[in-house]
Amino acid sequence: MKDQQRTPLFDGLKQFAAKNPFSFHVPGHKNGAIFPEIGRPEFAQILPLDLTEVTGLDDLHAPDGMIAEAEELAAEFFCADKTFFLVGGSTAGNLAMILAACGRDEKIIVQRNSHKSIMNGLELAGARPIFMTPVFDEAAGRYTSPILQTLERALAKHPEAKAVVLTYPDYFGKTYDLGAMIRLCHSKGIPVLVDEAHGVHFALGKPFPAPALSLGADVVVHSAHKMAPAMTMASYLHVQGSRVSSDKIAHYLQVIQSSSPSYPLLASLDLARLYMASMTRAELENLLTYVNRVRAAFAELACSRVLQLQDGDDPLKLTLQLDPGLNGHKAMAAFEQAGLWPELATHDQILFVLGLGAKETFEDLKKALHTANERLKIGGNHATIDRVQLFPEEIQELALTYDAMNKYSYREIPLQEGIGHIAAEAVIPYPPGIPLVMKGERITAAHADILKRLLSAGTELQQRQKQGHVRVFD
User: Fold this and answer.
1) What is the pTM of this model?
2) How far apart are CA 385 and CA 29, in angstroms?
């Protein structure tokens, strides 16, 4: 067992900075000596740690010193065989794991409502994705995950698939029987790659869901900055077993990521692991007590209800279901005006993400909720978006391969005229960054209808898509 109280990477940076060395190397701020005065008070403490690969500070892409030790500590904490530190967000990890597992024109089975970075990885690999449709969860009021029977049928139809890519949990913290899916895939010798961006804290155990690594996943990517105290873009990639080559992943990570990685981001990964490894059972119980008090306070709001936690839900995600006729984006603005900043809004739900500790005093939170409550009572009508069957096919392939797409030109047309055409770009409501229409997918009347209503509800899309236009292949 390694000493999880150690922070070799962070300590190494502090020790180097304490020498107050003459900097005849990059970066250009020279350990903070050269910097605009207007920003100095805010940046002064972090700049001395913003270093580069000088002697003794190791190399992210070929670590054998303090970075290697920090990654080994993380691997032990998360129960992985190998852990890579990422400075390009989970996006870098998702791209690398797909490129390492699947080659050009090879089939790979993918959860249809995956993050756009998964879709980008498929395109970079030139793979032939086989998409599995998620089911609509009536309790959650949205599409969540595919079911085991869908995966069984996909594997039976495409036994030559090189890997299966799943998302666990979804953005809202909902999980499913991932273990059963992994066991099915492994029985056929197929690796499972998991985008667990929102589940880094599952490694803490109860009351959180089981982590993907404990369920047997071969590669898992964590956005450490989403739910752990790491800096934005700081992430982990974990490998378990030999179904996917760690060497291949290391190769693609050095292709994708910067050759000048941010040491403050790397150090924050070291510290985030320390924070979680140091959490006691009493602290977790106190956290859950706080979470329950917050949920009870939100439950008193007008014009909405807090969705109840189901088995396997992440308690740190709080979803507010708005009453019919209340616009989710306008309601989110009411919270922001009261000093409460949610993670995202859909047309009828608002997601609040709690952390691993209580930053706000409870009384201040209740005052802010009271202010938001008064604003919510004002209401605001919007176009009702009823449930629409967005994914008519349980198992779906793209209308064009990625190689074929590269041979076509495209044009921009009004969305309504795009029905029947093949999309030359993804249509991605953001957040959560999950494509509603994929590049290479044929646009349907249902797509056009739901997009029109999403736009009327204030959903964020690319500028031309906001104006009711979309690019299609000629």
Assistant:
1) 0.95
2) 51
Query: For residue 171, is pLDDT > 70?
Result: yes
**What pLDDT does residue 386 have?**
58
List b or e across 271-291, with b for residues whose CB sees 16 or more CB atoms inside 10 angstroms.
Answer: bbbbebbeeeeeebeebeebb
Looking up tokens 């129960």 gives 79
H or E segment and range at residue 95 = helix 89-101
- Domain 398-473's class? alpha beta
CA 174 – CA 186 distance, rounded (Å): 23
Distance CA 71, CA 261 (A): 15
Nearest C-alpha neighbor of 317 from the set 197, 215, 433, 214:
197
- Does the pLDDT value for residue 359 go beyond 90? no
pLDDT of res. 456: 75
Q: What is the mean pLDDT of the chain?
A: 93
Q: Which residues make Cβ contacts (< 8 Å) with residue 280, sequence separation at least 6?
A: none
CA distances from 74 to 136, 159, 238 (A): 36, 35, 9
User: Residue 309 gets which letter from DSSP?
Assistant: P
Query: How do residues 241-259 score in pLDDT, each as one tens digit?
Result: 999 999 999 999 999 999 9
Is residue 205 pLDDT above 60, yes or no?
yes
CATH for the 8-278 domain, from 1.20.120.1200, 3.60.15.10, 3.40.640.10, 3.40.190.10: 3.40.640.10
Are 8-278 and 281-376 in the same CATH fold?
no
Q: Please identify, in words, the CATH class of the domain defined by 281-376.
A: alpha beta
Crossing angle of helices 89-101 and 246-256, in 10° steps, is: 130
Confidence of residue 460 (pLDDT cuts 50, 70, 90): confident
Question: How far from 140 is each of 54, 148, 175, 208, 267, CA to CA, in Å?
Answer: 51, 19, 12, 18, 37
**What Rg, from alpha-carbon coordinates, does the chain have?**
23
Instruction: Indicate the range of 76-85, 139-148, 158-167, 235-244 predicted with least confidence.
Output: 139-148
Q: 316: exposed, middle or buried (C-beta count within 10 Å: 0-12, 13-18, 19+)?
A: buried
474 burial via Cβ count (<10 Å: 0-12, 13-18, 19+): exposed
The per-residue pLDDT for 383 is 47
Q: Is 132 helix (H, G, I), strand (E, B) or coil?
A: strand
| Residue spans per domain, the chain | 8-278, 281-376, 398-473
Cα 165 to Cα 109, 110, 130, 387, 396: the distances in Å are 6, 5, 10, 26, 14
Rounded-to-integer distance, Cα 219 and Cα 94, Å: 9
Find, among 205, 203, 171, 194, the residue nearest to 273 by Cα. 203
Q: How confident is the model at residue 381 (pLDDT cuts 50, 70, 90)?
A: low
